[in-house]
Amino acid sequence: MAKLEIINLHVEIEGKEILKGVNLSVNSGEVHAIMGPNGTGKSTLASALMGHPKYEVTAGEAYLDGENILDMEVDERARAGLFLAMQYPAEVPGVTNSDFMRQAVRATSGKDIGLFEFAVSYEKQVEELKMRPDLAHRYLNEGFSGGERKRNEILQLKVLKPKFAILDEIDSGLDVDALKIVGENVSSLVNSEFGCILITHYQRILDHIKPTNVHIMIDGKIVLSGGQELIEKIDQNGYLWIKDELGIDY
Ligand code: ADP
Ligand code: MG
Ligand code: MG
User: Fold this and answer.
1) pLDDT tens digits, residue range 53-72?
2) Where in this chain does the record put each ABC transporter domain (predicted)?
């Protein structure tokens, strides 16, 4: 079993405090949904955990299996078992998708996986995600539609097999069919060796990936945690009632 533990995390962007003390503990086998209004710091949490240079951690700690990931370089975090799907995945012209993935496997696992072995596993994942088979030979994300990029992130996740993934709005830009495929593929990964944090603005994706825990982030803090009953409540009533109930005003 693996454990990701975030303690009192404070993060600033360009001198402005965005995260104001986030506490979150995720075990492998669990799916934690983080929901909340736009601009409350959900993506900031993802970027800070992955070590984006623009995000300055001013206080707090984050441990993956007892190791302080905040002390690590970005590539070390990936090697320690953290995976981040970006909200806006970048294009990398000149590097084919399969080359990139094989390189990434090599970099994170430290093992040189044979071309044939890699190709077999890669093709299988492409098929399971119902992606276009020519995708392997295309340049990374170049000319990919929004939905194809999202699926490609899940492909990376399946190929890299990290301990924890932070998936930030993987549902944006996906049509209902793609949403189902992506949701089922992520769900199938959750086991005693893998857990995930699912950041989402809407509840749609949560029809396909049932979270074990649901957290509401407002103004840089997790203000409410519970189970799936919270999803329905937010779907029906939005977020304003939480502010009222907890006496948050801003
Ligand atoms: P969410 O993902 O919950 O919608 P974000 O984490 O993206 O929220 O943003 C939280 C706050 O931080 C917002 O006020 C946003 O404008 C600000 N912010 C996010 N990224 C940057 C950045 N790169 N530079 C300056 N401000 C930023
Ligand atoms: Mg946003
Ligand atoms: Mg966001």
Assistant:
1) 899 999 999 999 999 999 99
2) 4-244
Report ipTM for this prediction: 0.94
The range of the structural domain enclosing residue 157 comes to 3-246
Cα–ligand 2 centroid distance for 209 (angstroms) = 20
Distance 237 CA to ligand 2 centre (A): 20
What is the tally of structural domains in the chain? 1
Q: Are 131 and 144 in contact (CB under 8 A)?
A: no
Mutate to test the pocket of ligand 1, among 10, 11, 20, 43 (most ligand atoms within 8 A of CB): 43
Distances (CA, A) of 239 to 38, 87, 102, 179: 11, 22, 42, 24
Q: Look up the CATH number of the domain holding residue 71.
A: 3.40.50.300
Ligand nearest the Cα atom of residue 34:
1
99-157 pLDDT, tens digit each? 888 888 888 888 888 889 999 989 999 999 999 888 888 888 888 888 888 888 899 99
- Is residue 217 within 8 Å of 37, Cβ to Cβ? no
